[in-house]
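REVIEWER CHECKLIST
Item 1: Sequence provided? yes
Item 2: Single chain? yes
Item 3: Sequence as submitted:
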Amino acid sequence: MTALEALRAVFRAWEAGDPDALRDLFCADGRYLDPLKDGSLQGREAIVEGNRPAMAAITDCQISEQVAIESDGRAVVEGYFASQVAGADTRFDFAFAAVVEMRDGQIERLAEYFDTRPLL
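Item 4: Structure as written out by the authors:
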């Protein structure tokens, strides 16, 4: 799997609300950095379980890409994350950038960066 394919698979997991789909995308010691979490999630189970509540909190997730760049086992995507807060009439939408680094065909590190102003 290329870095861009892996990142797009992460996006599909979010769109499907399926945290278990993240498990096999990451190295056993892979890291997932999310600006809303204190520190990074490390290891497959921590990544899956750390993302489970966030995925359950939204519905109708759609992720669009504006820019996608891939080189030497790394990919960067700039895009837009659009979703509905589960059980509410509130949107959870924001622009983001994501960077992925690969090792042996799996994600070694995924870092997300996004504008948190709409979340305040």
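Item 5: Key structural point noted by reviewer: The chain has one domain: 3-119.
Item 6: Recommendation: ____
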